[in-house]
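User: Structure please.
Assistant: Input sequence and predicted structure:
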Amino acid sequence: MRVDKILFLPSLAKGLVTVKTLVRSLYPPQMLYGDKMKDSCKIEFCVKEKTTGQVVGKKVIEGEVKRDNRTYFETSISLDNPKAWTPDSPFLYEGEVSVYDQDELVDRYSVNFGMRDFSRKGKFFTLNGDKFYLRGSNITLQRFFEDPDCQALAWDREWVKKLMIDLPKSIDWNAMRICVGIVPDFWYDLCDEYGIVLQNEWLYWQNHGWDEQVRKEYTNWVWSDGNHPSIVIWDAINENWDSYIGNTLIPELKELDPTRIWDAGYMTSDQMGTNDEMDEPHPYRALTLMHSSELNDYFKNNPYNLGALHENWVGFSSILDAGVPQLVNEYGWIWLWRDGRPSKLTLNNYNYYLGENATPAQCRELQAYWLQLETEWLRSERSVGGILAFCHLTNNYGFTGDWFINDIKDLQPSPAFRWFKHCFAPTAVFIDLTDHRYTKHLPALKPGSDLVFNLVGVNDLNKDSSGKVLLKLLDEKGTIISTQEESIVIEPFGKRLQPCLLKLPSKAGGYLLIAEYHEKGGAKPVLSRRYLKVGDAVTSFKDYFEYTLN
């Protein structure tokens, strides 16, 4: 007899863990009438704290195992004072299963797991009973395998830790989507150990298989990866629809693992009814640039107010009207290769905004600014349950791109990644103004006039955030020509609009408005920025001061 599969499924609220296991009998099947068909066995379950080895729960059950077959067993174990698993405190337990045949130990197997409850309430995700906003990006490892510089990096533990843990946590990300294909087990182990939550997506995009084969692979997937506390969402499909998966298979797999939420790609409650637990909208605002040959005419009729946080984009209505959590796990459409050249899908973007001879530095500046403003726009809509930018890792020289420059083995962040530190900060204050540097449809602001706008404060935490906002206006040389101060208080999980009035300079030119949020007790200010065109002196995006982060 052997332990074939095992799941430790937690309930922090109830203080217990449900253990499901399949025991494989290697005894020969019944060959003659009257031969044995089953054998008695004893199964011992033990739960220990991972770091101390202290036993916090035990259970022994007995049963019969069918010969040359797998037999299912299920039991529950109460734990003494269970400690919660969270991204800030990723406490791990070790679950051990021992199988005895006629009182002889014949197999023992152990896995790590964590006590955490991930669920949904209305349009929001919850972790251990509290509202929980997901902030992060995507990993497309199967595409990275096509990268000429991939080599053995995916099996280098230190490289993977920097990619998956150190860099994300340095900019306050708490989540990642494993996109169009799973990753090696030790990647999940690192996220378990250091505290990153995962949306775990099967390799299903444009491929369609036989229903029974899909059922076999998905069921084995849940058994295989289901002990990782970091995995909180099973993602069955990417950007597609499959009625069998959404309406037949997912409800079946929810019986096997009721502790996680399922995502079914572009399927919503319209196709799934009450089986729909969440949606994954992809608001790519610049998608049209891939197709349009008459970009100037298109944007003349369909201007994109990049940076206008209050704008209710027509494609946003389904997100606002939905009754389940909305996880925006792709957006941007502004990819670059690591040498600073536009990707295959975004060449038109850069040609339209920068011209055909833009330098890598100019492309990276636009990308960083664009992603900062789009992230601010999404985070300002507080009904969105999570935001995952696309993409943290992919193949170079492909259709998309990631946030790194130069040699991927060094994981050198691009300017876009460094600005994510500000727009993804759990508590932040953003400027609600349309960009004047790159957009072409806005008239210039009148010199010496009053500019009225809102600051938008957002708070992902379950406590008040308060502090001061310093508004600084910089000229084309980077000189600060005016400063004013605003006070702000943002309620837990809330949003605060702070009206502001700024006296514009009398001299025409290209200016940069910066909002520095100095939170009480915060180490460094969180920045938001908007470029302003005052008067008609500015003729190009090149006429503005380049603000770089230290």
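The radius of gyration is 27 Å.
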